[in-house]
Every structure is written in structure tokens, then in C-alpha cells.
Amino acid sequence: MTKSSTLNHPVYPIGTPGIAWESLEKAAWLAIQQRKRNYWDEVVSPLTALLLDRDSPLADWAELVEYAELDYQPQGLAQYPLFAVRSRNWQAHRPTVLVTGGVHGYETSGVQGALQFIAHKLSHYQSSVNFIILPCISPWAYETINRWNPLAIDPNRAFVEHSPAAESAAAMAFIRQQTQKVALHIDLHETTDTDNSEFGPAKAARDGLVFEYHDIPDGFYLVGDSEKPQPEFQRALISAVSQVTHIAAADDAGCLIGEPLQQLGVINYAKKALGLCGGLTDAMYVTTTEVYPDSTNATAEQCNRAQVATICAAIEYVLQHGD
């Protein structure tokens, strides 16, 4: 089943149809954004409690690192420290696991799922893998429930050389400093109804294009890398997540979000070519999760648990099959 909008080509309230935004329109867009939740309370505070408290069992073998700071004061906004969780006792013979969340700040379970994995599951793997976890790459977007950063740039199309998005550039620089070899990268995302009601129309207006609606898949799915699809790996993750929540079915054309279905719950993108977060390493095993938090058949907690289940199943697969 898929969920389709009945609206047709709305005119976004900023800009002139058919004309790409300039600085004036981007400033107008920024002016209407509002803070709706607190990065410090919902992300930083749980991380510090887990990793900086003397009594925390995680603190002996995991450390909290401030890897960069985003400075949006020139836009009249705040500074945001960026945090990663990494292994203290790095071992070269162990596979390295990278987990990224909150590249799109509005995709809540990407952030909260990463935090839940750190809190409840990370200890299971602390002696078998090296880990790097960036739970919230885009904190301003997390607070304002946004896809873009304050400059109207999508960080998940900006994992490229000389990136225009500070969020993407900081994450890339940090990972390159940590290691040259990553075995597994899980990038945590959501597909939401607001992709059709807000973020898609905004992107079309920004770029001077006409927005075309697409069906929103009802359920969980994965986006593999077309350059290294690893179908058995993707299948193992879908099997694990199916125990937590339902898997999205293809639409009548055999697609999810316009892409041909490769197998149940799996499509592929060219991650590096598109500047996606999933393309920031040369990991053999790569996938992007997509949960559907607006489904009537899933709760927010199920979405979080689906993210955690994916990470765990992915690590188990790599430990079994090697890197």
C-alpha cells in the first residue's frame, strides 16, 4: 500500500514560479523558520549523561567527542557543537562501523534511533567492532524540523569535495581523521508526508521548477548503493526489521519513490554521484534506512526500534561475513 496526496502542484508561498531563488528569497524562507524542539535537551543532554557521567558503564570504552562547531551567528542564529561517539580502545583488526543520523534534521527517528542504539545496544558490540556514531549531523534542522540547513542547502546532497554545507563538510573531515577504512555505514533516515506537503514544494520553488508529487511508501525500506548493492546484506536487514514494523510494498509501477524495486523493501541510488551521506566512505556494506512515521500502522517508538534493529542486524552480518 502507498499513500498518495490528492493535491496538485501547489504554489510555494516564497518566490516566483519558474524562477530559482536568490539571496532575498532564501532570507525570506529562513525568516519563517521556527525553533520547535531543543537540541541540547533532546540530544546533547542524553549523550553527556551516557558518556560523561562517572557512573556510566559506557564511559570506560566509549568517548564523546566534539568534532566541530556550526556557527550560524551571521544568520542571527546560534552556534551548535557537533558530537560523535567513538571507541576508546581502537583495534586495527576489528571492522569499523559508522552510524550517521540527523543528516535531515526533521527525520526524528534517525536521531533518536541512534541515541537508543548507543544507550541500549552499543555495549553488545564494544569488544567486536570499532565504532563511530554521529547521532545528529544537522542540529539546527533538528530544532526547526527541517530538511535544509539555514542556507537552504540540503546536507544530504552535499557530501562532495568543497561541500557548500558546513554540516556535511564537518562530518566528512571528522571521518577522514579517524580512519581510512570503514567496513559498514548505516545512515538513518525517514520518508514523511511532509516530503510532499512542504519539503518537495520548497525545493521545487528554490530551483525554479514545478513540483511533482510522488507516492509516500507506507512502511520501512532501504536504499542501497547501486555501485555496491550487496543484495544479501540488504535482505538480512529487511528480515530483521520485519520483526519490528511492516515493510513498504512497491507501487503499481513496481517502484518506491520513483525508483525500481530491487527486492522486497530495497531500492538503490548512486550514493557518491548524488552527494549522499551514504557515499562518504568506501565501505563495502552501505545502506540508508527509511521509516514512515506518518503511518497508521506504526508508532514513533516502532520507528526508533526499526532503526536500532537495522544497525544491530548490519553489525551481525558484517561480523559473520567479514569486511
Automatic annotation (TrEMBL):
<dbReference type="Pfam" id="PF24827">
    <property type="entry name" value="AstE_AspA_cat"/>
</dbReference>
<dbReference type="InterPro" id="IPR055438">
    <property type="entry name" value="AstE_AspA_cat"/>
</dbReference>
<keyword id="KW-0378">Hydrolase</keyword>
<protein>
    <submittedName>
        <fullName>M14 family metallocarboxypeptidase</fullName>
    </submittedName>
</protein>
<comment type="similarity">
    <text>Belongs to the peptidase M14 family.</text>
</comment>
<keyword id="KW-0479">Metal-binding</keyword>
<keyword id="KW-0862">Zinc</keyword>
<dbReference type="InterPro" id="IPR000834">
    <property type="entry name" value="Peptidase_M14"/>
</dbReference>
<feature type="domain" description="Peptidase M14">
    <location>
        <begin position="37"/>
        <end position="303"/>
    </location>
</feature>
